[in-house]
Amino acid sequence: MTEQKLLSADEFEAKLRAIGPERYHDLHPFHKLLHGGKLNKGQVKAWALNRYYYQCCIPQKDAALMARLTDRELRREWVHRIEDHDGTAEGPEHGGIERWLKLTDALGLDRAYVMSTEGILPGTRFAVDAYVRFVYERPQLEAIASSLTEMFAPSIHRERIAGMLEHYSYINDDTVAYFRRRLDQAPRDAGFALKYVIANAETRKEQEACVKALLFKTQVLWSQLDALHYAYVVPGLIPPGAYVPEAD
After folding, report:
1. Are 63 and 73 in contact (CB under 8 A)?
2. Is residue 36 part of a domain?
């Protein structure tokens, strides 16, 4: 079968961007409840606890990708993503993981318990581990394309900041610092990755592989919320060993 015609740069970008309005996890019912002030504190704590696992694995995902990069300039560009999350020796308190831990601190979760990841849902662990494995195993171009959910992130961060500050008395400007910082970081990172993907997907097959990689990432994010909704909202069946708000 003859390969389909290569999409123009504009057509390719449009196809990637179209995934957000259709598939991004801001459409998930759990996020509607979270941002609308419909969750109790225990449910918010369960969300923050489980989301920590995703946050702490992002630098591992990026390190796995960097280990495969042969282009020094590309490594120089990508390394700041690790620093954004882990912080640096000069200012570790400024990293995204530390800002997330300040959120879980403010919610009353024990920091050692959060960092142990012992209480996270099996669905959370499987989804996040699948993403790290995807980046480690798939071609470099697809691995980079999977990060393009950052194109859609600012809108969900703005919605989350406004909604949580409005509806939850225990949330303040300090506890939403992670999301405010990502308003600047995500567009910067997405802009670079988008240019790279468009420039380096040289066949229609590679373009379609990048589209599938981005779709996969949206599924990773969606499945995490599926697990949270099933365990803590409806039907409320918390797996053995997972965090139980009533016992907190």
Report:
1. no
2. yes
118: domain CATH number?
A: 1.20.910.10
Instruction: Say if residues 172 and 184 touch (Cβ distance below 8 Å).
Output: no
* C-alpha–C-alpha distance, residues 64 and 212, integer Å: 20
State pLDDT tens for residues 182-199.
Answer: 999 999 999 999 999 999
What is the domain extent for residue 179?
9-234
**Is 248 within the bounds of a domain?**
no
The domain total for the chain is 1
pLDDT tens, position by position, 211-243: 999 999 999 999 999 999 999 999 999 999 999
pTM for this model (two decimals)? 0.95
